[in-house]
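Note to self: keep these together.
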Amino acid sequence: MTRDEFKNKILTIFIEDFEFEQPGLDDNLRDDHGFDSIDALELLGKMELILGFSFTREEKEAAMSIRTINDILDYVEEIKESRTQ
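Structure:
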């Protein structure tokens, strides 16, 4: 799956499941949209379904510092790269 395909799926999740209106790729999810740690865990579960693999505990803990949708996209690319080496 390309970055753009994944981005479109993530944006759809934010709009449909978290009821964000026009989420920007660089919006601070917590400050601008009230996204909290429970939301983050729910999102991680949805991302696992999309990506077809489970995150390790360490990867989930690292994800808690993510603030923007662009951060999510970069984070997923890093994980995918590390798993193909």
